[in-house]
Amino acid sequence: MEVPKTTDTAKQGATITPEVTWAQRSSATDAEKNHIFLSINVPDVDPKKIKLDVQPTFIDFKGWSESKKAEYSVKLEFYAEIDPSASKINHTPRCVEMVLQKKELNEEFWPRLLKDKAKVHFLKTDFDKWVDEDEQDEKDDDDYMSRMGGMGGMGMEGLGVSSATWMKERATTMRN
Questions:
Q1: Which Pfam families match (predicted)?
Q2: Distances from the Cα of 117 to the Cαs of 39, 77, 114, 120, 168, in angstroms?
Q3: What is the CATH number of the domain that holds 119?
């Protein structure tokens, strides 16, 4: 009797949905305190191999991992709109971190991140950044935000390219 070989789908070039973590802050008066913290956990993805499309109602991410020989892909439709031009992005060796500015100033938290109420296995609360609504004024986000500092809108200006140019270049790279 022959034992079937096990397969590692990641090694065969499969598409993997990455783990996504999130937290939020809300403010009815201060746009700087009215945002979503979002991390797409994609280890070993070269920034040159990323395609990231940030729109008011969704984010679409694709990234190639050379070590896993696989593409990470996730599209998230938000519960409410964000302001892409006021949002910041930082790529680390382990993840793509974003601070997405909520479009509407509102003291209340979004009840969920996604438009759809259905639970998804890859989306988790980032308890390192999460605070309760009634405690958010006490929480100092300056340390986290300072890591995003100097990265301007969409976080690409620090790389010497506009966010539109960066996304266009990445889309071309991903096709090749």
A1: CS
A2: 20, 11, 7, 9, 32
A3: 2.60.40.790
For the chain, 176 residues long, the average pLDDT of each consecutive 10-residue run is: 44 84 94 94 92 97 92 98 96 94 94 97 94 64 50 42 45 46
- State how far the Cα of 12 lies from the Cα of 109, in Å rounded to an integer: 41
Residue 131: what pLDDT?
Answer: 80
Q: Is the pTM of this model over 0.70?
A: yes
Residue 167: inside a domain, yes or no? yes
Structure confidence at residue 141 (pLDDT): 53
What residue numbers bound the domain in which 85 lies? 13-131+146-175
Domains contained in the chain, number: 1
**Summary count for the chain: helices (H), strands (E):** 2, 9
* Residue 1: Cβ within 10 Å count: 2
> What's the sign of the alpha-carbon dihedral 97, 16, 61, 34?
negative
Residue 140, in any domain of the structure: no
Q: Which of 103, 46, 94, 54 is nearest to 77 (CA)?
A: 54
Contact 131, 124 (CB under 8 A): no
Question: What is residue 44's predicted lDDT score, i.e. its pLDDT?
Answer: 87
